[in-house]
Every structure is written in C-alpha cells, then in structure tokens.
Amino acid sequence: MKTFPLLVLFAILFAQTSFAQSDGCEDGWCWGSDPGAAKEKYALFSDNLQLKDYANAITPFEWLYENTPNLNVGLYIKGVDLYEELLKKEEAGGKDPQKIIAYQDMILKLYDDRIQYFGEESDVLERKGRKFYFYYKDREDPEKWDKMYELYKKIFELNGKETSRTNFTFYMLASVNLAAKKKITEEEILADYEAISAAIEENENATSGSEAENWADLQSKIDGLLAKAVKIDCEFVRTKMGDILKNNPDDIQTAKRAIKYMLNDKCTDDPLFLIAAENVYQHEPTAGLASTIAQKYQIEKDYDKAISWKEKGIELAGDDVEKKGELMYDIALLKSVQGKKAESRKLAMQAIEQDKNIAGKAYELIGDLYMRSSSDCSDPNPVKARAVFLAAYDMYAKSGNSSKMAQARAQFPSVQDIFTMGMAEGESISVGCWIGVSTQLRKRPSE
Question: Is the pTM of this model over 0.85?
C-alpha cells in the first residue's frame, strides 16, 4: 500500500480546499458554479436595494446567500443594509413581533457569517455588539444576559481600549445583570469593572478637550452601574481585600482597586490605604504616589518617613521643576516642624532655585524661622538681640506678605536702645547664631 508523508498529504488537501473555495473567483468576487446566474442575481439585488425596493431585493439576495456565501464581503454589508431597512419598516408599520425578531436575527447571523467567510472578527463583532443589546434587551429569553455577557466580553478581549464607548457600556450592563442574578461573583464583576476602567483611563489620557470629557462621562456611567450591583466602601476593602493587601504585596491590581475604592469612599485615613499605596509604588514608582504616601506619614506625624518619601518623589520627578520645587518646599516645612531651622532654610532656598514660582511662600517660611529664633539667638546687646526680626522682615518683604512684615517691624529695636548702644539707623548689623546674615539696622516704627 502506497503511503504519503503527512506534510505532502496536508498540502494536497489544502490545495483541493483552496481550489474549491476559489472556484469561479475573479478579482475578489467568487461567482460560484454558475457565474452568469450569480451576476444576474447580484445586479438585481443591488439595483432593487438602491431603488429602495426592499421587498423585491429579498429573493435575489437569498439566492446569493444560499448559493454563493463567499461571493464578496459586500454581500454581507449590503445584506445588513437590506434587513435593517426591512426591520425599520416593520417596527414603524406592521409591528409583527415575529417578523421583527426574524429580521433582527438575520442581521446578527449576517455578521457571524461574514466573520466565517471573510474574517475581521474584532471589527465585525464590534459592529454586531452595537445592535445586539437593543435587539435582545426586551426579549423573553432567560439566557439573554448570558449571551450578552459572552459577546461583549469577547468584543473587549479582541478590541481592548479600541472598544467603542457603546460596547463598554453594554459589557458593564451585562456584567451587572449577571451579578444581580448571582451568575457571576462580586470578584468577577469587579474584575470586569477594573478592566473596563483601565481602558477608559488610557483613552482619556490619550485625548483632550471634549473627547476626554466623553471618556470621563463614560467612567461616571460605569461607576454608577457598578454601584447597582456591589456596595463598594471601606468595609468592602477591609473584608474582601485586606488580607491580600497585607500578605500579597505583588498583587498590584488589587492594590490599585483598593486605592480607588478608598478614595471614592473618603477613607484614606485607614491604614490599608497606606499599605496599598506602598504595594503599588514598589512596582510602579511615581513622584505623585511618593508624595501621596509622604502626606499620609505626615498626617501620622512620622516626619522622618514623610521626608524620606518626599525625597523619593524628587528623584522621580525628572524634569518637572514645579514638582521638585513643591516637594523641596514640603521637606523644608517638615524640617521646620522638627525644629531643624538651618536645614529648613537650606531646602527652602533650594526650592526657590528649582522653581521661582514658589519663592513667595518659601521666603515667608524663612521669615517664620527667623521670627521663632529670638530665644535661640539672644544677645546681651538689646539691639543685636532683636536683629532676628530685622532679618525676618527682609524675608517677608521678599515674600510680599505685608501683614507679617508689620508683625516683624513691631519687634524692631527701640530708638532708645539704638542710641544707648552707640549705634545708628541704616548701618549694617550682623544677625548671629544659626542665621548668620547681615541686614540694615532700623528702628521700631512707633517711636
């Protein structure tokens, strides 16, 4: 018995199949075993469709659909057009529910058959999805939401962020309805929600203006749908996600979801928020997240950790001078709270060098540091003992804070002390201790 190698046999079968599929094909049109009849039927179908004689377009279309299913993708495009017109007419006039369903089913089948013969599944299913919900939502079909969920989940898997806003909505609707029927778990609907939200966020970040607003509006709609199925609050995070956050720091998706839920429920003071934020940071470090974590430690008055996290933020800020300047100023404030005045001033000056826009509040901070240093910088000479207020006034003047300028001026040396110490207004005077600057001697304005 003669045998053929497997590859040779496969090649023969493939060639036979290809020949059968391409029989009667020319320039992308496969006219089948009777090209003459097929061409005649197609001309009749197209002419009637163009003339809006839909009733007489049905017979030639059905012949083509049965005898030349791989004729051309145009057969399915025009076929959908035909049955959509028939459907509109029935919905407006006859309103026969059986005909309406028959036309709807035909349209959906045409999409499926188009995929079978011409591929492009992601695009064709996307088109099918925009109609499927409206065709099925009012049907007396106990499995309608299962069918919707299966379709829209597949559409999303194939198209990802390119899925239309309409089909994102239908996907979430199907998920919510199945959750209400206890056919999927809370974890599954949350997974659907997070996948959809991530795609929406990516689209929103990639657009601007009204288009970005449309994506933001869609996210609000998706949030509203989720709220109908699952109560997402801090208690949910604690009971459903707490152990994962504590024991599995590599589960970043859970950590991101927890952060979002806790922000929405305004319970970021919960210790789990900090755990979730640090989990995310370990895998996806950003200046913004470092700043958020630092703020939480600052609220807890763990200033050393707060400073450490703000320093991480500076390292990650790259060329963002505003972010760097703001973080340096924040560290200067924390150093001030710790009583580390010299370090605080140094960082405030660095913040000014980084971003001139921050100069106002940075100079004001330095003025505050000087104002609080009168006891640290005491001197037997009553004029020099008040020199800190002269220096503070200079900083407040640079900051533009007239109120604090007045407060500092009220503490200037008295004219009597200046005279007694043999000094004169306008001369240079050194400010001692940690401040170490020179300024101009001025008298208290009330004298």
Answer: no
